Structure to design on (287 residues):
């Protein structure tokens, strides 16, 4: 089952390039290493000529005094991923792995505060090394994007557009203080399902947008292969409509899809059709 995307052109004029990053070191899940199988399964159904693969360290890595679990391996993967994206006339879609890989892509694409971020996921990854109980980088990903802590793994403050980060599809109750401190706009799962254009509206007049998809934004009845499924998610159709609204109204310069963790490699096939619908929503030509 191959997706016909090699001729699809990104809105920046370049070809679509899939950057496969099977990073697992940022995940807090006991099933973290199944993210490797998930990334490989998705890559297996994408056109080989349009894929590049980042070599992720095999070892877990060390905290190295950062307060971030497995930081040494994450630093290596960050550098390799940014190198795969920077200076290329292609629209990158990063295939994870844990959601931390989105931070590396945003870092590579962020300019002088003009990049907005549409983040689809069940949870609000707004922890910091100081507030986190697990030290898992995946749970700090948006804080890293917003420069809410100082680290080689975080962007400098104001690299993304002020007020330009929208967190959509949330079901887990986020910490109100963290949300207030971050300045993100919050759109819960019910609002997203009822009004797919809500994210595009919240982005406002900004033009350059990065779209991140944590697959747990989808309802578990539609996609089972995530490490920590959350009930009452959105449907693939509504997610596709939300992405379409963003691509119609904004210049989507990059994207990431993360969190596919099939319980065993053979089970991946059950979810690949749904995942490829998400890929298609990000790559098919717009009018």
């Amino acid at each position: 089952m191959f997706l016909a995307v090699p001729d699809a052109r990104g809105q920046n004029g370049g070809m679509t390039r899939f950057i496969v990053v099977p990073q697992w070191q940022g995940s807090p899940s006991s099933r973290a290493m199944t993210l490797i199988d998930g990334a490989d399964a998705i890559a297996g159904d994408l056109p080989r000529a349009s894929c590049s693969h980042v070599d992720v360290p095999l070892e877990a890595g060390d905290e190295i005094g950062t307060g971030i679990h497995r930081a040494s391996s994450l630093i290596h993967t960050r550098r390799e991923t940014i190198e795969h994206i920077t200076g290329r006339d292609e629209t990158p879609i990063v295939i994870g792995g844990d959601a931390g890989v989105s931070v590396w892509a945003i870092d590579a694409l962020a300019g002088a505060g003009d990049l907005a971020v549409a983040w689809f996921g069940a949870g609000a990854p707004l922890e910091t090394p100081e507030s986190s109980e697990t030290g898992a980088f995946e749970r700090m990903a948006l804080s890293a994007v917003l420069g809410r802590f100082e680290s080689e793994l975080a962007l400098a403050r104001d690299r993304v557009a002020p007020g330009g980060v929208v967190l959509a599809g949330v079901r887990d109750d986020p910490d109100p203080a963290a949300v207030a401190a971050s300045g993100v706009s919050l759109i819960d799962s019910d609002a997203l399902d009822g009004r797919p254009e809500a994210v595009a509206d919240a982005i406002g007049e900004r033009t350059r947008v990065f779209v991140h998809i944590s697959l747990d934004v989808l309802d578990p009845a539609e996609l089972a292969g995530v490490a920590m499924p959350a009930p009452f998610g959105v449907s693939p159709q509504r997610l596709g409509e939300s992405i379409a609204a963003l691509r119609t109204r904004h210049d989507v310069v990059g994207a990431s899809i993360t969190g596919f963790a099939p319980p065993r490699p053979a089970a991946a096939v059950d979810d690949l059709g749904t995942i490829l619908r998400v890929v298609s929503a990000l790559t098919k030509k717009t009018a």
About this structure: DSSP finds nine helices and eight strands in the chain.
